[in-house]
Amino acid sequence: MLLKFALSFVITFSLLAKVAVSFAQVANPFKPDSLVKHSWDDYHLVWNDEFDYDGAPSASSWGYELGFVRNNELQWYQPNNARCSKGLLTIEAKREFFANPGFDSSSSDWRKCRKMVDISSASIKTAGHREFTYGRFAIRARIDTSMGAWPAIWTLGRDMEWPSCGEVDLLEYYLVNGAPSVLANVASGTSKRWNAKWNSKVIPLSSFSAKDREWASKFHVWRMDWTPDYIKLYIDDELVNTTFLKDTVNPDGSQPFSQPHYILLNLAIGANGGNPDLSKLPIRFEVDYVRVYQR
After folding, report:
1. What is the pLDDT of residues 169-179, one digit of tens each?
2. pTM for the whole thing?
3. 18, containing H or E segment
4. Total domains, the chain
5. Which of 30, 84, 152, 240 sees the fewest Cβ atoms within 10 Å?
6. What is the C-alpha separation between 244 and 262, in angstroms, rounded?
7. What is the CATH number of the domain that holds 161?
8. Residues spanned by the domain of 224
9. What is the pLDDT of residues 48-85, one digit of tens each?
10. Which of 247, 274, 267, 290 is nearest to 87 (CA)?
């Protein structure tokens, strides 16, 4: 009798433990996830950053963009606006007033003719540290959909001038024809300098919120599958954009997606993002993890 009871207890405990593990593997959509690890039979993890440390992003993996950089955006990029804590990388855009160090009253360059900085943010990149050719990239993040926000998860090719270097936007969020939208894009070069050929998928934010009113408050996984033949972009395992690499060859015959690419995470403000004066700053872009797998 005691033996039967003991065996029954062990079996019951084992089943309960399996159930507990099963429940533990379901990520809370409102919190960072340090437990659930993706497992794909034909891929293995080659690099990741879980941001499970305090302070600045790891200097062994990340560098920074600095100052006014592109697109006539409003923010001044600086390292202090990217911090890691409690398993999250938080990129914060905030009101901050100081003189533009590069101000030149005689210049027509928008980066130099602005006398003051009034919004700061951060853009971090793995250039020179972590660069990859092909693979499965999975980034879990939560975006702020406030007016003015333009968060992005993207890659650029290591060599050649933009856009001949190639660009992949796993995530962009901004206004398209006045409508808040989530975008997944692939860009390559054309015969005109600085003019890209785009394959873009634009999804109105309303199409997500119609299915889930709390969509914008949750973390989501933005994924890229990149092979020698195609780039496929996913949101929460739903395929949203397919680009075949036979269609991305530059006019000079070079292929932007056969070279190493590096990862960028940034929060821009203004320009396509809209007028931030209609929102309460700070605006935050939270990244739970960045994981790269290869066959």
Report:
1. 999 999 999 99
2. 0.90
3. helix 2-24
4. 1
5. 30
6. 20
7. 2.60.120.200
8. 42-51+124-294
9. 999 999 999 999 999 999 999 999 999 999 999 999 99
10. 290
